[in-house]
Amino acid sequence: MVHDTAPDEALRASSGGPPSGGGARTVRSRPRTRRLDRQTFAAWVLVLPFVLLFVAFTAGPVLGSLGMSFTDMRQRDLRTPFAVNGVGFDNYVKALSDETFRKAAFNTAYFVILGVPLTLVVALAAAVLLDRGVKRFQSLFKVGYYLPVVTSIVAIAVIWRFVLSPDAGLLNTVLGWVGIDGPNWLASRTWAMPSLIAMAVWRNFGSAMIIFLAGLQGIPASVEEAGQLDGASSWQRFRYLILPLLRPTVLFTSVTTGIGYLQFFEEPLVMTQGGPLNSTLSVSMYTYQQFGFGNYGLATSMAYILFVVIAVVTFIQFRLLREK
Amino acid sequence: MRRTWWIYVIGALGLLAVAAPFLWMVLGSFKTQGELLRVPPTWWPDKPTTQNYRDLFGKASFPRYFLNSTVVALVVTAGNLTFCSMIGYALAKLRFKGRNALFVLVMATLMIPGMVTFVPLFVLVTNAGLANSYPGLILPFLVSPFGVFLMRQFFLGLPDDLMDAGRVDGTSELGIFARIMLPLTRPALATLGILTFLGSWNNFLWPLVVAQTEDKYTLPVALALYSTGQNAQNFGLLMAGAVVVVLPVLVMFLAFQRHVTKGIAITGLK
Fold this sequence. Notes:
In chain A, 70% of the residues lie in helices and 0% in strands. By secondary structure, chain A is mainly α. In chain A, helix 11 (247-262) runs antiparallel to helix 14 (296-321).
């Protein structure tokens, strides 16, 4: 429909003259209405390319995934995605009763519960450091701390596997200077996950730091001065004056970091392949493995379970941190 | 003022912790395999060698991967700049039915995990005959909800008077967008462009699945496969590969860092 009339409409819109009679749309004489009409047409032209791509590659797949999760679709059905059988909630039941899936869920929770607060605390500390203390070279520090955020995870994995390697590794060498005999980090069931968490904090705190910094710089100096006059210590001023004003920023960073960490995937994929003994297997990674095994229906149901968890966690964060 | 020196010490220690792995990577890429395996490890290369880089660009097909990454990132960036600014303008400045619903819908997808769309997207791309092709690598990323949000926020901040002036002069609605409003969004376009390019350059999972033969690999895919395949023990080659993956974005980021940090802050505060 839109395609049929588009050239004619475009001509009219660009010539700026009065629309010629006929066509699908009624001609109105009042200029205000006509302007709105032209606005509607222009809006459609501007929105259309995005909408087409969005429907094809985002909205469509989101719904397709939901449908797929209720079928027994496997890799052999790849060419005939509509010739599959409905299986109700079987995939969901199967996923939730799968021992490995539960292990992956536990690992993901472990990663999020430790990783998100650590990332935010480091980010906030760095932001306060830059905002209050470091006036000279501030952008050097800012850029430096942000560097890992823009670096490819694959490259980071190559570097970190080397940093964490047991004998020739940078970390164990440094620990050796102070007499600590570091473990084989990534091969240890105890230490593999904390290593990935440390790496995630190292890699991601920069982006939350930038947002905290912008939030801090938006707080007028008079707030601190008022606290100083009342004799509050610098910790008290931070805790009771600055932090409450940062609430929206804390909400934003905890939501975005939480959504990202709940999907954590690339770190174990490139660092540990989920091992040792599934101790770093995440939900996203297990989903990807099921996709690799050809279990498409099961994989999409796992993805939807994760989606629901993300939605619930985000909702809880909004309830806990919203403005009172 | 007495307190400031130790703040700089803490800041510098933090900087060292962030930068040390990178420095080690660069120095390591100039070491021989023998030196890389030495215990305790060395910091400066004993006998600096460029052999790793010569292997990378001679024996391995890194120039090809580099080209693939560049082409994909440039087209994806161009697509996002074009389409996200178009819809961003419409959502911010034009009145049409369904505007708010469309905006809410687009924003809602920000929360959806990538894994949800992953499988159907793979089925779609395979059936469209786009697996192992540039369009297959590019099309799913031509637009992004984040880009729409960024451009909409920026257009919202521009005064309506400019549009009304254009209308009085008889400029068409599309002309107002393209000739009057769009040129004013250059800072936002710079932010979106750089972030999209970085994101595409570092994108890993999708190209890993879609690029099935070596001539379509992007740099991260190639590096990941090298680091798990028969070259897994060739540490010098991997270090040099990591440098080649990181260096272009590093240079780009340093050149445009102001836009990046400003853009992140804008999306976080509004």
